[in-house]
């Protein structure tokens, strides 16, 4: 489980395709990685296969992951958001994030508002029922609050530290993003429709 509080960004050092998926090597300053550890890479929960402490780690993207994410377009030099799984005794600062990408969407608009930014993203039809104003949404692994929404888009307010410490500073209209809706909303829907 993750919290959506991005710890760092990493640069994609290498991408290698094979018949079963893609292997990706990513730079990181994390010293305490272990084989088999879960790590969120721009919102997708992946497993550390190999690593050099404080230097890099590699993950394998199965065909399902490649199909469900924008990682089919991932290339050397790209920057990704990184978060290690939350320890049982850790602080819970964001919201419950599973690292299960529900859909890809795209940046519709980026507007500077004083020292902050407003980002507007497309909203896939099949996720619309899970978003409410002031509810939680994960965008590229970042825990955010829905500021506004309509039938086809939603907006979030981004503070300077989030803008500077994540890949949002690199995003422009038309760029893809990963979305994960609040899992609590999914459970509520299931309970209501099954009763």
Automatic annotation (TrEMBL):
MF (Gene Ontology): riboflavin synthase activity
Lumazine-binding repeat start-end pairs: 1-95, 96-192
GO BP annotations listed: riboflavin biosynthetic process
Pathway note: Cofactor biosynthesis; riboflavin biosynthesis; riboflavin from 2-hydroxy-3-oxobutyl phosphate and 5-amino-6-(D-ribitylamino)uracil: step 2/2
Coiled-coil regions listed in the entry: none
Keyword annotations: Repeat, Riboflavin biosynthesis, Transferase
Matching Pfam families: Lum_binding
Every Lumazine-binding domain range: 1-95, 96-192
InterPro entries in alphabetical order: ATP_synth_asu-like_sf (IPR023366), Lumazine-bd (IPR001783), Lumazine-bd_dom (IPR026017), Riboflavin_synthase-like_b-brl (IPR017938)
EC number(s) per entry: 2.5.1.9
Function, as annotated: Catalyzes the dismutation of two molecules of 6,7-dimethyl-8-ribityllumazine, resulting in the formation of riboflavin and 5-amino-6-(D-ribitylamino)uracil.
NCBIfam families in UniProt: PRK09289.1, ribE
PANTHER family: RIBOFLAVIN SYNTHASE, RIBOFLAVIN SYNTHASE ALPHA CHAIN
Name under which the protein is recorded: Riboflavin synthase
């Amino acid at each position: 489980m993750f919290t959506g509080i991005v710890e760092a960004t990493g640069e994609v050092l290498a991408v290698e395709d094979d018949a079963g998926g893609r292997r990706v090597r990513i730079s990181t300053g994390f010293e305490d990685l272990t084989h088999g550890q879960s790590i969120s890479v721009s919102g997708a929960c992946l497993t550390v296969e190999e690593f050099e402490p404080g230097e890099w780690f590699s993950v394998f993207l199965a065909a399902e992951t490649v199909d469900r994410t924008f990682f089919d377009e991932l290339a050397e030099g790209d920057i990704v958001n990184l978060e290690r799984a939350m320890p049982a005794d850790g602080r819970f600062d964001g919201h419950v994030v599973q690292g299960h990408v529900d859909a890809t969407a795209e940046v519709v608009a980026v507007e500077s508002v004083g020292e902050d930014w407003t980002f507007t993203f497309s909203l896939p039809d099949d996720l619309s029922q899970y978003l409410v104003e002031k509810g939680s949404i994960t965008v590229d692994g970042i825990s955010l609050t829905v500021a506004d929404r309509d039938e086809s888009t939603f907006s979030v307010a981004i503070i300077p530290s989030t803008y500077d410490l994540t890949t949002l500073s690199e995003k422009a209209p038309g760029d893809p993003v990963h979305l994960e809706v609040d899992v609590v909303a999914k459970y509520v829907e299931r309970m209501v429709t099954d009763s």
